[in-house]
Amino acid sequence: QRLRQSDAIGRYGGEEFLVLMPDTDIQVARTIITKLLHQFSQLKFFERNIEFTASFSAGISCSQDWTSSQECIERADQALYQAKKFGRSRVEVFSPVAIDNSEKE
Predict the structure, then answer these.
(1) Is 10 helix (H, G, I), strand (E, B) or coil?
(2) Along the 105 residues of the chain, how does pLDDT read in single tens digits?
(3) Could you confirm whether 92 is annotated as catalytic?
(4) Angstrom distance (rounded) from CA 77 to CA 97
(5) Exposed, middle or buried: residue 47 (CB in 10 Å: 0-12, 13-18, 19+)?
(6) Given CB 3.0 to 4.6 Å as the disulfide criterion, which of 18, 36, 71, 89 pairs with 55?
(7) What is the pTM of this model?
(8) Which member of 15, 51, 103, 105 is catalytic?
């Protein structure tokens, strides 16, 4: 409900979703997804009279930087794993430098 009509969202794997945001600068995409993360983490859920909250991690990659859509998805997936590694509940933009440094650790 918070995305534009031109954006598309769908399940991509078990617990992963893919958001396509055409004609969106990577920093604007990061701002939008970060805002979604903040808003989502404020929601209260109820199950069997137990209240809880949830969050998500996100990885972002720009299609203009890669030669194929599959390569773009793989880079976003790598950024997602970085977000999980750095503490979860965060948004990371793919950076080859960040990936190289984490592999050395």
Answers:
(1) strand
(2) 788 999 999 998 888 999 999 999 999 999 999 999 999 999 999 999 999 999 999 999 998 878 898 999 999 999 999 999 998 899 999 987 655 555 545
(3) no
(4) 15
(5) exposed
(6) 89
(7) 0.83
(8) 15
